[in-house]
Write a structure and sequence with these properties.
The protein has 406 residues and is α+β, with helices and mostly antiparallel strands. The chain folds into three domains: 105 residues, Butyryl-Coa Dehydrogenase, subunit A, domain 1 (Orthogonal Bundle); 118 residues, Butyryl-CoA Dehydrogenase, subunit A, domain 2 (Beta Barrel); 155 residues, Butyryl-CoA Dehydrogenase, subunit A, domain 3 (Up-down Bundle). It is 51% helix and 13% strand. The chain has 15 helices and nine strands. The strands form three sheets. The chain has a four-stranded antiparallel β-sheet with strand order 2-3-7-6, with no helix packed on it. It has a three-stranded mixed β-sheet with strand order 1-4-5. Helix 1 runs parallel beside helix 5, helix 5 crosses helix 9 and helix 9 packs parallel to helix 12. The longest helix has 38 residues. The chain is globular, with a radius of gyration of 21 Å. The termini are far apart. It binds flavin-adenine dinucleotide (FAD). The site of flavin-adenine dinucleotide has 23 residues, from strand 1 and helix 15.
Length: 406
């Protein structure tokens, strides 16, 4: 069945190439082993070979670390397709790019640093990056623009030509396995936004250590643990921009993460919809395929309505990201609110789609073989990360309703 998107910009060769590369990888490599992914606790049997294939053999590692990435709209097409197969693999890939994004775009582009840091991503190794923001004391307060960085506990002190970093981060994607940690610090919490400092920490380095990997209900391909910084020293030039500007880059990265999260939710919801439509076509009850019962048909219609709407909105915000000359700075309150709409709506839709699909598939839906329960477990986290659905809704209401006290 054809499914065209009514946005001309997606009809380019690059857009088609990005989607088709991810789709082929999902069909040929991920789907045949997908049910084994969550059992591969040490990553050696299934997960590591999948990363080797996509990052080294297909060259996506190099593309992610490149100075000139594809348009965000096309990257989101790639990410959506990859999440259709496995959102744990997708988030590990996406966060590698996420940690480099602050220094990739004007007016804060840093060709010197991009070139220097490219060295920590060897072409023949699976090499991840990490955007380390959340702390043991909490993630939401750091993401909440109204807190202006006053709740960041990880400190950066300038000592001559070096930053000295102390503190701890918790949960960031690819923690414990990354070659590079973009660490959200404060030079002084009392300075508010002026104190926020985004500092690159290559690993291995003296003073960085890790806790145990968290035992999660899903997203096994993504590693998460605590990261401890004990007098970690990096060159002064490893700070992304400077006082005030790093706060903008933090907000810009929240916009980016929210758009990416939306695309990932759309990808998983799309796959669930395909699985449940197949099931509803072949499963007979009451003398006909269950999709021919109006109650089931209406559920399917709700699902596809949500998916189509979520996809189109996420792509429209990516389109805005790609055109700051028309839509304004990528860190604006408007961009943050719109990216949060994309994330919140897509996450809620994907959770709804997973819940209804499980119900439609009866007991089979509750088995590993049914293939929906994996997305059901993974999708839930997409609602909860990046400040969760509450903080995201506050960002939306602040911009559109001019809140004064929240
Ligand atoms: C698989 C996975 C991947 C992750 N990836 C990353 C990553 O790449 N980088 C990173 O830095 N972190 C990452 N995280 C961490 C995640 O983003 C945070 O856990 C999340 O933002 C919530 O922070 P918290 O758990 O500390 O909750 P808290 O901040 O303690 O919040 C707890 C609850 O209070 C609510 N709440 C908080 N503040 C408010 C408020 N002002 N108003 C109303 N309600 C509020 C929240 O919605 C939430 O329900 C990841 C986590 C997981 C599990």
């Amino acid at each position: 069945m054809a499914n065209h998107l009514a946005i001309d910009v997606l009809d380019t060769e690059e857009a088609k190439m990005a989607r088709s590369l991810a789709r082929q990888f999902v069909e040929n490599e991920i789907l045949p082993v997908r049910q084994q992914i969550d059992d591969d606790k040490d990553h050696s049997k299934v997960i590591e070979p999948l990363f080797r294939k996509i990052m080294i053999e297909l060259g996506m590692g190099r593309i992610m670390a490149a100075d000139q990435p594809m348009s965000l709209t096309n990257q989101m097409g790639f990410l959506e397709e990859l999440s259709r197969g496995d959102s744990g693999i997708a988030v590990a890939m996406a966060c590698t790019g996420w940690c480099l994004f602050p220094i990739r775009y004007e007016p804060y582009k840093r060709p010197d640093l991009i070139e220097e840091l490219a060295g920590v991503f060897p072409e023949d190794e699976v090499a991840f990056g990490c955007f380390a923001m959340t702390e043991p004391e909490g993630g939401c307060d750091i993401e909440n623009p109204r807190m202006e960085g006053r709740k960041i506990h990880t400190t950066a002190r300038l000592d001559g030509e070096e930053w000295v970093i102390n503190g701890a981060k918790q949960w960031p994607t690819n923690s414990g396995v990354s070659h590079l940690y973009l660490t959200v610090c404060t030079t002084d919490p009392n300075l508010g936004n002026e104190g926020i400092a985004l500092i690159y920490v290559p690993y291995p380095i003296e003073g960085v250590s890790f806790g145990r990997f968290e035992n999660k209900v899903g997203m096994q391909a993504d590693r998460n643990c605590s990261v401890f910084y004990d007098n970690v020293r990096v060159p002064k030039r490893y700070r992304a921009a400077g006082p005030g500007d790093d706060a903008k880059l933090l907000h810009q990265n929240l916009v980016l993460g929210s758009i990416a999260s939306a695309s990932m939710s759309v990808g998983t919801a799309q796959n669930i919809f395909e699985i449940v439509t197949d099931y509803a076509t072949t499963r007979v009850a009451g003398g006909k395929p269950i999709k021919e019962h109006s109650v089931i048909a209406c559920h399917l219609a709700d699902m596809v309505t949500g998916i189509e709407t979520a996809r189109t909105y996420a792509l429209s915000v990516s389109y805005m990201w790609d055109r700051p000359e028309t839509y304004g700075p990528r860190w604006s309150a408007e961009m943050l609110a719109k990216s949060r709409i994309a994330k919140t709506y897509a996450a809620d839709i994907s959770v709804m789609v997973a819940n209804r699909a499980m119900e439609m598939m009866g007991s089979y839906g509750y088995t590993r073989e049914g293939d929906v329960e994996k997305h059901w477990r993974d999708n839930k986290m997409m609602q909860q990360w990046l400040g969760g659905s509450h903080v995201a809704r506050l960002d939306i209401a602040r911009h559109f309703c001019n809140l004064e006290t929240l």
